[in-house]
Specification:
By secondary structure, this protein is an alpha+beta fold. It has a domain of 104 residues. Helices cover 42% and strands 22% of the residues. It contains 17 helices and 17 strands. Strands 2, 6, 8, 9, 12, 15 and 16 form a 7-stranded mixed beta sheet that branches. The protein has a 5-stranded antiparallel beta sheet with strand order 7-13-1-17-14. A 3-stranded antiparallel beta sheet has the order 3-4-5. A hairpin with a 2-residue loop joins strand 8 and strand 9. Helix 5 packs across helix 8. The longest helix has 22 residues. It starts with a strand and ends with a strand.
Length: 448
Amino acid sequence: MGGTQYILTCLSPVHVGTGRQCGRFDGAYHNGRWYVMDLDRVLARGGEANALARAMSERAFAWSAWLNERGIAPSDVAAYDLPCPQDPGDTPIREALKDVHGRPYLPGSSIKGAIRTAILWRLMGEAPDRQQFAARYVQLCLKASEVLTALREARAFDRPEEHRAVLARIFSVNEDEAEALRQTLYRVLNVEESRLERDWRVFQKRLGQLGRSREWLGQPVERAVLGRDPNHDLLRALQVSDSRPVGRDRLAVGLVWTYTRRGRRLVEKREQEEECKIFVEWLLPETALTFDLRTDDVLFTERAERELHFRGPKEQALRELARTCNAYARAVIGMERVFFEQYDLRPIAEFYAELDTMLNALRDGAFLLNIGWGGGWEVKTIGDLLRRVLSPEKFAELRRRYCLGEDPRTHRIDVNAPFPHTRRIGYEGGAPMYPLGWVRVEPGGDLG
């Protein structure tokens, strides 16, 4: 099993969270730092638990005032503290992932997830048949309820020939395309035509669930391209370790604003006078972490090929990891640079221009990724490929069906406007400065 140690350097702030959000009951802001309270220390210095509980039940409770009244320094009762640009007030703070010693690190799953998206993008882009599958699958999602109703009325869940006829009628296509849609439907629902007479209830149930959740919309495409289940998934051949932890001095609390379009400009988003912003614990730019990456060569042997079918374009996409990831990064950087130039958010457009220059100067084996929270729809999905695969009308229908780009004030979707129209932007010195999550990954040496 071949392996390489890599050095990952944060190019912009990176946040991978625990899912927990801290608020004013969890900590105190004092002199440019955020102090997360340790209740055991607080009670050891500040008195009785019931009295503290009563104080915290008050709406106006604030740790800074409570500690000040008792002459307690926040540093004396904090589990840890971090630099913080301003008092968060009632704005939540997303907690970063740390080890048992409180040191931040990046999980291998986050790194591998970014690599997975790049491999999926490459394999989809190189194969027209996979693009056609994705297009047919999306069309089936959009009209699944109509297909379900027609088959229920005809009592035809166990009759494949009727399935083809229903699809031809609903989609207004010829017999060959109806057959292709039928085969796509069976593949997506993981049912076998030869067993429909017995398993028609399973088919009916899965058809009723098709396309109902936008969160799971891409899974059948992933299975079709990368493998039908975890045992047959191409990324089984890639093992990515968690990074080694770094010191807490590489962590800070940062401010993230959601930006949205207003006419020809991007502005800080506000809904009913509520500011759409959040604080996060993030790894600072220039933070360097190391992790290991190994490829399981046994899964590419002739014997394994009979079961897994990893050889060919799949193996090439994985073996040429730097090329695969950089091609995807180049596509995302290009789209984002144009977007921020078009809507005149100059600091972010300049960041992407610098990222483009860096991409063209990377040494052999190095690549760029976007990992963690806040990167946005364009980075975490193959949305650009869907735009190219679907007709403008079908993509507009997809947006309406799943409320993609809905204006929360009017609940309307302008399908002629660019999508997505919001971005999360990291602040520095009180000004917008960074898109989140960009890292450079460089080989550091072979593993023994």
